[in-house]
Design goal:
heterodimer, A: mainly beta, seven-stranded mixed sheet, four-stranded antiparallel sheet, globular, B: globular
Chain lengths: 115, 111
């Protein structure tokens, strides 16, 4: 148990569906991240939230929409996805600053399949 | 953009043997971290080495860092079947705690 919980663990959706991924961290951290992990590709950073403000958006298509209502919760809203969006989506949190070295704590991920 | 790149991509050894994985990176760093990922799960932080350190130990793990060669190695001694996983290096130092991960080394330890 890393202190970062992701739900659901598995999700199958059609290309016209709208769904949301949820991430919750119980570590009191001030930054949260969404990553995409596809087969045979490096982990891709999608979004960064620091103190509840989005500070990075790595050219992610608009069909992915993040939301960070408070420092403990992070959502990834999905709509009109493509089959190539099928991947493992990982959430992470960290305590940025104060010389902590940016260690990130990851959830178990949501395995997304787009049909 | 990809920063760390692990080598080899896959490694298969017998229980009890040592496993060595290497990581090369491209730009200046503040620190380098190693993470482990069991199949289909999240990543777990193993060890962090700062740019002014050359070697660090944690249990059966030994990490070295050579900033002149922009490379790091992770040694797992006396490997166990439970060490079977993918191992990633990640470089950090961004103001928002951003990490850039390599593609990973898939380690298989046979009993």
């Amino acid at each position: 148990e890393t202190g970062v919980t992701q739900t659901p663990r598995h999700l199958v959706m059609g290309m016209t569906n709208k769904k949301s991924l949820k991430c919750e961290q119980h570590l009191g951290h001030n930054a949260m991240y969404w990553y995409k992990q596809s087969a045979k590709k490096p982990l891709e950073l999608m979004f960064v939230y620091s103190l509840e403000e989005r500070v990075e958006n790595n050219s992610v298509p608009s069909r992915f929409s993040p939301e960070c209502p408070n420092s403990s919760h992070l959502f990834l809203h999905l709509h009109t996805l493509q089959p190539e969006d099928s991947a493992l989506y990982l959430c992470a949190s960290s305590q940025v600053g104060f010389g902590r070295g940016d260690i990130q704590y990851f959830g178990a991920g949501t395995r997304l399949s787009v049909l | 953009s990809q920063q760390g790149e692990e080598d080899p991509q896959a490694l298969s050894i017998q229980e009890g043997e040592n496993a060595t994985m290497n990581c090369s990176y491209k730009t200046s760093i503040n620190n380098l971290q190693w993470y482990r990922q069991n199949s289909g799960r999240g990543l777990v932080h193993l060890i962090l080495i700062r740019s002014n350190e050359r070697e660090k130990h944690s249990g059966r793990l030994r990490v070295t860092l050579d900033t002149s060669k922009k490379s790091s190695s992770l040694l797992i001694t006396a490997s166990r079947a439970a060490d079977t996983a993918s191992y990633f290096c990640a470089t950090g130092g961004g103001s928002q705690g951003n990490l850039i991960f390599g593609k990973g080394t898939k380690l298989s330890v046979k009993p």
